[in-house]
Structure formats: C-alpha cells, structure tokens
Design a protein that fits this description.
The structure holds two protein chains of two kinds. Chain A is an alpha/beta fold. Chain A has one domain: P-loop containing nucleotide triphosphate hydrolases (Rossmann fold, 3-Layer(aba) Sandwich), CATH 3.40.50.300. Chain A is built from six helices and ten strands, in the order ββββαββαβαααβαββ. In chain A, helix 3 packs parallel to helix 5, helix 4 packs across helix 5 and helix 5 packs parallel to helix 6. Chain B is of the alpha+beta class. In chain B, strands 1, 3, 4, 5, 6, 7, 8, 9, 10, 12 and 13 form an eleven-stranded mixed sheet that branches. The chains are: A alpha/beta, B alpha+beta.
C-alpha cells in the first residue's frame, strides 16, 4: 500500500534528513522508532503530504504523490490519509460529533453521522458525542482523534506519537483500537513514536 | 458546517462579540437617529411654511417671530397695531394677510385668534362641526382634541400666557364648534378662534372701544416674488414693525442645527471605527488562538479561501447585527424623542420606516466589518500547516 524510496528532506543546507525506505502493506502496521531530533515528524509530514520532499519517491496505493499539484494534494490527503497528531487538535467551538463529521465535510463528502455514531460506539465514547471537546480527558481526546482519522475510510493512517501522553492502561487501549480500526477499513497504519512500550507489539519496525 | 463554526465561535466569545455589536450599534443608532430627526424636523418645518412668504410682527429677533408666528413654539416678539398691518394689504404685491393674535392657552395648547383664511391656508378638513362664526366659538386641532379630551359642544376657558400654568380667564368660556382632522401641521396643536374673542377676553370690563386693536403678528402671501425684494426692507426701515422671511430664517436655523448634527455624526463615525478596531482585535487574537484549528482544517482538506471567508463572515455577522440593532435603537429613540417633543412643544415625529440614506449606513457598516475582519483573516494564508501542527 505504502512504499517510499530514497526520501530526502532538507530544512536548510546544513540540516537535512535521509530516510530509510518504508514498505507497509494493506492492513499492516508499521512502527517507526526514533529519538527526538531524528526527523520522525518530518517523515510523517512528508508521507502525509504536508511537506514536499527535496528528492525521493512516495507511492500510496499505486499513486505517486510527489508529483501531485498543490490542489490535488489537498484533495488526495483529505480522502486517502487520516492523521492522528501527537497533541490532539480539534475545532474547539464544535462538539465531539461535529468534529467527526467535519472530516467528511472538509473532504467534500456527505456528513456521515451514522458512521460517527458507530465509531464512537466501537471506541467507547458514545456518551460524549454531544459534549464540547474541552470536556474530554487526554485519553478520550485521543480516541476521538482515532475516530476522526478513519471517518473517510482512508487508505493510510498516520499516527504521530499517539501514546506519549497516555498512561500504560490507556496506551494499550488506544493502540488496540487503532489497529483494529485500521484493519476494519483495510488501511495501512504507520505509527511514529519514541514510546518503548510499543516496541514489543509490532514486528514491522524501522529505527531512524 | 462553516456557518455553524462561525456561529459557535461568536457564541463562544460572548463578551467580545457583545462589545463589537454594542459599539457598532451605538454608532449606527446615533447616525440614523440624526438622519431621521433632521429629516423629520425639516419636513415638519417646511410643511408649515407652505404658502406663507412673510411674517410681520413687532420688532425683535426675526427667528423668534417666525418660530412664534408660524410654528407656535417660541414666545411672540410683542404686539403691533392692527391698523398698521392692514395698511399693508393695500399694497398690490400683497395677495393675502392672515392676522394672528395669541396670548392665552388651554392646558398648554395655544389659543390663536385669526380668521378662516388661516384654516384654509393649511387645507384644514373638519372631522366634525364647522368653522367659528361668532365670538367665543373655537375650532380645535386633532392633537388638542385627543390630549385635552375636548369634544364638540364642550366649553372651556383659556388661561393667560402661553404656558399651562397662567391665570385662568374664567369669566368667559369658549365653546367648541369644530374639530379638525389630523393635518400634520401646526394647527393640529392649536385652539383656533376669531380675533374678537381674544380681544374680548383681555378687555376686563373697561369698555374702551377706542382702544387700538392690536394683533401679535400677520402671515403674508405675495402675489409675485417681487414682493420679497421690496416689502421686507420697506417694512423694516419705515415702520415700527418687523418683517421676517420664513424661508431665510429656517435655513439659518437648519445651518445652526447642522453644526450640532455634524459634530454628532463625526462622533458616531468614530464609534463605528472603534467598533471596527474591536472586531479587528477580537479576530486577530482569536486567530492566534485558533491557529491550530485552522492548520488542522487545512490538513483535513479545507481550502484557505473558505477559511478566510469563514473568518470574514464572523466580522460581517457582528457588524450586521450591530447595524440591525442600531436601526432598532434609533427607532426607539425616535419614539421616545417624539413623546418628549409632543409633551414640550406639541410636535410629534411619526416616520419609523427605513430611510433611503440608511442603505449607505449599511454599506458603511459592512465595509467596517469586512476590513476589520479581512485584515486579520488574511493570516490564514500565512499558516504553515506542518509547522503549526508540530508546535506545542
């Protein structure tokens, strides 16, 4: 599903990153480990089409994304890539349910409230749907983030340090939910982390 | 969805939004109030002038003569002998002379002694009854009737002076013989009778038939505009009387009021601009706080232009709400002022409909909103998605 080849990104002439090639199949989880400053988030931004690589190739589901125009890139990202950020970002003025269907709306799709409800049931925050985002705990927010990332049934889910702010119990829960959701929609799951607790859980690992 | 976000954001910042709306509301209300008042007062003043080219009365302030003679709102300048005024009618340039004699009131409504030409000049229509034909018969205007409760056939006495607290002349009583329909002019607030009644009331028994008959002033109509050129000067230089031209005096009055109105308008524009600055600051700060939100929405597929429009809409919504509230407040202000004017001067304002000039106010409010919201909203175009989302 996801293949990268000789990705290079330079912030400036002195500071540039060369990334190892990544191969992640449909329904598979790939763990990218690395300490701070090794370019983890940069790699995620490259794959998530938020940054353009200096050189190299990214292929998602047969589509080379590096050559897309800016406009195509926005539409491609909205429809095919779900991103879970390290710090949960939401539109604070909207409630939980609206934040979920916002993903549909911004991707230019019909607002699928039924899917939002199903996901909230599967992820265990059904009773929070009508609550303002600020009322949620860190773990709850992370679960809503997961639900939002799969609202458009993307082909690839990118998770940036999804567990770093969570305790052991929540960490386990979130990872299990993340994996099962990715498997449900047949998406490749790419987790970028320095969290050693996840090391034992996945076999496809790349260390930066 | 974006509209929902706009609305939720405004609702989330209640105090800020309230301040923006409040400022815009006051600016609009003041300007609109001034426009409506100015227009109405001008209309009222011009309507009462119709047909009257010149007012002749005792020497004094010409403006005072006009205000008392035509609008019945100031004290008269004094009295002039009827004989002198009548001499004027022999001038071929004078078409008509309407003598007026006042000095009494009934419950604050002035009693004016005149002849039937006065009623004709305003095209007065009788709601019931007929015009006065003998002494102590009175015709009352619609407001007088409504506010004093006088009806056809009632009798009443006048009190001395033009304010309602003078001595009561209770030795002779007037009888209402006619009630006028609403005329939207000065006669709505008068008690109109013949000259003889006013004279008789003040004779106090001493039968002095030789005493010179005096009137307060006379309204003159010219046969041709030529009268304007020669007559006023002639009267002012060669007689004990004074002639004043309503058109000129009222223009002077409007110029004086205009200075006050203009100052208020400038004040109102300043308030509107402050409202704009307040929208600007509110949105600028909120955009800083909401940078993550914007970056998030951009990463989820939102177009920058759409987000820009969304922020712009917030400003437009605030200024439009301010505009609407301002118009409502200005109408309430008109109603309150109208009540005050009616109490003090028996003048009422009645137009509550939208003025065409208020379209410009709307455009002004929109421009303030668009600029105040547009400039900070341009920040959407500067957001670096990956950097912003990676920041803590």
């Amino acid at each position: 599903m996801l293949n990268t080849h000789k990705l290079v990104f330079g912030y400036s002439r002195d500071k540039s990153f060369e990334f190892p090639d990544i191969h992640c199949k449909k329904g598979e989880t790939c763990l990218i480990l690395g300490n701070s400053g090794t370019g983890k988030t940069t790699l995620l931004n490259l794959i998530g089409l938020l940054l353009k690589p200096t050189s190299g190739e990214i292929n998602l589901d047969g589509q080379s994304t590096v050559s897309l125009s800016a406009k195509e890139m926005i539409a491609f990202r909205a429809n095919n890539i779900g991103i879970i950020y390290q710090k949960s970002h939401f539109v604070n003025s909207l409630n939980v349910a609206d934040n979920l269907v916002l993903a549909n709306y911004l991707a230019g799709k019909e607002q699928n409230t039924a899917r939002a409800r199903d996901l909230s049931q599967a992820l265990g925050f059904e009773e929070l749907l009508s609550k303002p985002i600020q009322f949620l705990s860190g773990g709850e927010q992370q679960r809503v983030s997961i639900a939002r990332s799969v609202m458009n049934a993307p082909k690839l889910i990118l998770a940036d340090e999804p567990t770093s702010n969570l305790d052991d119990e929540n960490c386990g829960k979130v990872i299990t939910l993340l994996e099962s959701q990715a498997r449900n929609i047949g998406a490749a799951l790419l987790i970028v982390t320095h969290d050693q607790r996840l090391k034992s859980k996945f076999t496809n690992q790349i260390t930066l | 969805m974006l509209l929902k976000i706009v609305w939720k954001n405004i609702a989330a910042k209640k105090l800020n939004s309230f301040l923006c709306i409040l400022l815009m509301m006051f600016g609009i209300a003041i300007i609109s109030l001034i426009m409506v008042l100015g227009k109405q007062i001008e209309e009222k003043f011009t309507k009462n002038i119709t047909g009257i080219d010149m007012v002749v009365g005792a020497k004094g302030s010409p403006l005072q003569l006009i205000l008392s003679g035509i609008y019945q709102i100031d004290s008269p300048t004094g009295n002039v002998p009827l004989e002198d005024v009548q001499k004027l009618t022999s001038n071929p340039l004078v078409k008509e002379m309407i003598p007026l004699s006042m000095g009494d009131n009934h419950k604050g409504y002035r009693i004016v002694g005149t002849n039937s030409k006065y009623l004709k000049n305003f095209n007065a229509v009788f709601a019931e009854g007929k015009t006065f034909s003998g002494d102590f018969e009175a015709v009352i205007g619609s407001n007088t009737a409504a506010n004093t409760g006088l009806k056809l056939g009632d009798t009443f006495s006048g009190s001395h002076g033009l304010e309602s607290d003078g001595d009561v002349h209770d030795h002779k009583k007037y009888k209402v013989v006619g009630v006028l329909q609403q005329n939207n002019s000065v006669i709505d607030n008068l008690v109109i009778t013949n000259l003889g009644s006013v004279w008789a009331i003040h004779e106090h028994g001493e039968e002095d038939t030789l005493a010179k008959k005096e009137i307060t002033c006379a309204l003159i109509k010219f046969r041709s505009p030529l009268g304007l050129m020669t007559l006023p000067r002639n009267i002012n230089q060669n007689t004990v009387m004074q002639a004043a031209l309503p058109a000129i005096e009222i223009n002077r009055l409007f110029e004086l009021m205009g200075v006050g109105f203009d100052t208020l308008k400038i004040l109102a524009v300043v308030i509107m601009v402050i409202s704009g600055i307040s929208v600007f600051v509110t949105l600028y700060n909120s955009l800083k706080e909401r940078k993550y939100e914007m970056a998030l929405m951009l990463s989820m597929g939102a177009q920058r232009f759409k987000l820009f429009m969304m922020l712009l809409l917030e400003g437009i919504f605030l200024s439009l709400t301010g505009f609407l509230l301002g118009i409502i407040v200005s109408r309430i202000g008109v109603l309150i002022l109208s009540g005050q004017l009616n109490k003090n001067y028996h003048y009422s304002l009645n137009q509550l409909s939208l003025q065409s000039e208020e379209i410009f106010l709307l455009i002004g409010a929109l421009i303030v909103g668009i600029f105040a919201a547009g400039i900070p909203s341009l920040g959407v175009y500067r957001i670096n998605i990956s950097k912003t989302l990676a920041e803590d």
